[in-house]
């Protein structure tokens, strides 16, 4: 198993007062704007590479900034790849292949030399000795395990990053890496060429250009009139090989353009795509050049920025691949395309609430494990909830069942409300089966997500009692069972041992509940069941199912498409059969 930082604890860093964030090989962080997601990335970078932090990095300037990391997977195979001195520095502090480190800066603007890296000594008997202060060589030893992190911010200038040679830009890092091998391979040839230029243009050159000599000879008599015994020579400095590379940039070539174009002539999406490609290449170079046991921490703020949806998927897959081959990836995102069903369980949902500051919710995986003890149910619920990445980007959840809800409910909601579900920060989660309703409520509640459910009428009679929302001997259910016995024969309804409908060749169970809803004596009891479940944030389709209330004759793609068109072209009171009831549902959801 590759080593990685499995958790990072951050204190007093910008908006993060005190919080611990679990990390995996590939960790996405999601949350509202200004929740503090980027601060996690900056803190992770600072943990591995110290730099003096200004006052803007301190949540409270009266207290130190502290960032701790838990590094797991430092096994013997990894230790053997380290230099002997680094191996010795790390080994003495290992606890079951785990190393705990802590970086501290006490005051804003403190000198780099005063920023200490502590290592936890789990064997220490005295609590005062638990953290060893800056053991000799530990910073370099950590660097041999985690080389310099690669960080790219969301709002950084992509054009400058890929086209301007500066120490901190991606192109600058790439060019800096290729200077040394070029010097080694072609240094003599390049220096000879540069020496020729120096002889030609330098004031003391051995074979100066005649034009320069002529200029010197023409101007010096005039200077002598003002300053006797003083002369001048034109001097054109010749750069060293490193200075030549400082002018390096990127040119973009396309089939329809005979010459290369500047990166700035491209759109933001193309610039961002080139930036992502160069970052990956830089990561590959660093990995190849570094200790083969080392792992690079790749930190990217909104990698999807400016990219086409298909390009976003390519970036996601590239980052996923890197996370499996020598890199640990931590990124922020606002795009569901950056988070697949495999990654939802470990995605960090970040919030910021005054006065607690930036915090995390439980991950979906943690919430499911906490709420549900038996493994088969965990797997079933994970499949249900990970089918929609929207769960990560919403403030509230609506649980539904069935494809009609998927296809039409968002459209009906917007038609009646004038605003979309997204505007109200709702995510629509299709359970496919209402058997998970209670568990979904519990898990989503553990995540801090307010949840409401919309269910068919049969749920009130079959699963609501099992889920604990209704009593087993509920009098309204008992009364309706009597009505089922009374209407069964006349309507070809087959009843099971509990006097509830079961399907037969003539009448489905769902149709039987629709027939019950039309039976006048049963309607008061159905209303009672509706009100009882409403107390648990569950809305029951009192007429049986969504299709009856909407006025749909079929559950086909053609029927759904036709209905969606009618919502746009006809009065809603004519399109939606139960206009009053559906409108009441929309009002309930937005309260």
From TrEMBL:
Keywords: Endonuclease, Hydrolase, Nuclease
Residue intervals of the Endonuclease GajA/Old nuclease/RecF-like AAA domain: 4-51, 156-339
Protein name (record): Predicted ATP-dependent endonuclease of the OLD family, contains P-loop ATPase and TOPRIM domains
Lineage: superkingdom: Bacteria
Species: Chitinophaga eiseniae
Keyword Nuclease in annotation: yes
One GO MF term attached to the UniProt entry: endonuclease activity
Occurrences of domain OLD protein-like TOPRIM (ranges): 392-458
A Pfam family hit: OLD-like_TOPRIM
